[in-house]
Each structure stands twice: as structure tokens, then as C-alpha cells.
TrEMBL record:
Pathway: Phospholipid metabolism; phosphatidylethanolamine biosynthesis; phosphatidylethanolamine from CDP-diacylglycerol: step 2/2. Catalyzes the formation of phosphatidylethanolamine (PtdEtn) from phosphatidylserine (PtdSer). Heterodimer of a large membrane-associated beta subunit and a small pyruvoyl-containing alpha subunit. Coiled coil: none annotated. This is Phosphatidylserine decarboxylase proenzyme. The active site is at S203 (schiff-base intermediate with substrate). The chain crosses the membrane at residues 28-61. Its EC number is 4.1.1.65. Its main location: membrane.
């Protein structure tokens, strides 16, 4: 009798590695390094050491770690690292509503707040094509306020999967953030978890789940961009948890 072989899943190991720095951060680190050198040479040594700390922090802010994204067309992954600060039923932004886009019916919105210590590279929640990118100038209120969704500088992105699934999400600048940097444009084909942009120095990302899909995350939970599953399409089961 022929024997059934088990899949060999234990032969590969993964080692920790230093995350790379996104090129967008090099110019800021270079400026900080030059100022730091000036402090050391011409001003005061203690200011120079402060400059060293700031330079290292800038490099850490623009870190771009490798992420492992689950391959399942039903899964919607987090576009941002950060803290889940709001989960609410709201209508999508009008910029994401219309023919070939989202409907005006209320859906679940998951808001992820990124502090200045989080990775700020944003990733696509699903695989598909970029059908809309809409930038809107605005204020720079604290990104953890609900009204920041409508008043702050922001950029809406709509992704459409091969099966017609449409997921909209919004990059929102905060009090410290002053620029949203896009990596994609309408018509681009992207994979789930692929890098789509970054927001400089503190911000928030709102994700609009499709109708009939409940969040798979909880308030106060931390997400990892490209890895944490925010929801499974069609799964309308609310989960409960406890902070501890």
C-alpha cells in the first residue's frame, strides 16, 4: 500500500534582519546629520548628541520592514501599522462613491492610528487594480479625532479585485504629518500587501469594509500592515476581547 507523505513545512527557517530604510527618508536623515555635525563643530556638544538621536529616529521612522501577507482573496489585510482607535458604521467618503466605485450605504470603518514611532509605509488591503486616487488638501488636526476623516489633508484610494470586490481606504495626515506620498496611480496592478504610499510623521488610515463583513480586529488592538487580517469578506461575526 502506498504511503501518504505529509507536507514538509519545517525545513525552512526565517531569521530576524534589520529593516531597510525607504529612500524617502534619506534626504531628511542627511539634513539632520549635517545639522548635527554643525552642532558638534561650532555650537555645543550636547546639542550634537541631541542631533544624533534625532537622526537615528528619522532613519527608524522611515524603516521599511519585509512583511508576509496571507494569500487568500477573501482576506482584507491592514494597510497600516498602528492602533485600532475607532470602529464605526459610516457612509464611505463621497470621493469613493459613484459608478464603478462604492455605494453610499453605510459600512464598517476601521481606523488605524499611526504614532511617530510606527512604520509609516502603507500597503494595499487586497490584490487588484487601483481604480481611484483622490487627494484632498485640508487641515492638520489630531489624526485620532473622528472629524479628521472629513477635515484633514487626506488621500482616498480605491482598489478593485479581479472578482469585482472594491475596497476603499483613506490616508489621513495628522498634526505632525505634512505630506502624503503616493507610490501608485490609477490603473496600476498591485498585490495584497504591496506598498502604496507613506505619510510623513504621524497619521491615520481608514479602511471601509464591504457590506456583510465584520471587523476581525478589536478596539485597542495593534495591527501590522500587510499581515493583520482586518476582516474576511462575507464573514459577519463580531468578535470580543479584553485589554490585559
Amino acid at each position: 500500500m502506498a504511503s501518504l507523505e505529509k507536507p514538509d513545512i519545517g525545513t525552512t527557517t526565517v531569521r530576524w534582519r534589520w529593516p531597510s530604510v525607504h529612500p524617502e527618508g534619506y534626504k531628511f536623515a542627511a539634513i539632520a546629520a549635517v545639522i548635527t555635525l554643525v552642532f558638534f563643530l561650532f555650537v555645543a556638544e550636547w546639542l550634537g548628541w541631541i542631533g544624533v538621536i534625532i537622526t537615528i529616529w528619522i532613519l527608524a521612522f522611515f524603516r521599511d520592514p519585509i512583511r508576509t501577507t496571507p494569500r487568500d482573496a477573501r482576506m482584507i489585510v491592514a494597510p497600516a501599522d498602528g492602533l485600532v482607535t475607532m470602529i464605526a458604521t459610516v457612509a464611505p467618503p463621497r470621493e469613493l462613491i459613484g459608478e464603478g466605485a462604492l455605494t453610499a450605504d453605510p459600512v464598517m470603518r476601521v481606523s488605524i492610528f499611526m504614532s511617530v514611532f510606527d512604520v509609516h509605509i502603507n500597503r494595499s488591503p487586497i490584490a487588484g487594480s487601483i481604480s481611484r486616487v483622490v487627494y484632498i488638501s485640508g487641515k492638520f488636526l489630531s489624526a485620532d479625532l473622528d472629524k479628521a476623516s472629513e477635515e484633514n489633508e487626506r488621500q482616498h484610494i480605491l482598489v478593485e479585485g479581479k472578482d469585482g470586490l472594491k475596497i476603499g481606504f483613506t490616508q489621513i495626515a495628522g498634526m505632525v504629518a505634512r505630506r502624503i506620498v503616493p507610490f501608485v496611480k490609477p490603473g496600476d496592478i498591485i498585490a495584497a500587501g504591496q506598498r502604496v504610499g507613506l505619510i510623513r510623521f504621524g497619521s491615520r488610515v481608514d479602511v471601509y469594509l464591504p457590506a456583510g463583513t465584520s471587523p476581525s480586529v478589536l478596539l485597542g488592538q495593534r495591527t501590522i500592515a500587510g499581515e493583520t487580517v482586518l476582516g474576511v469578506v462575507g464573514r459577519d461575526e463580531r468578535i470580543e476581547g479584553i485589554a490585559q
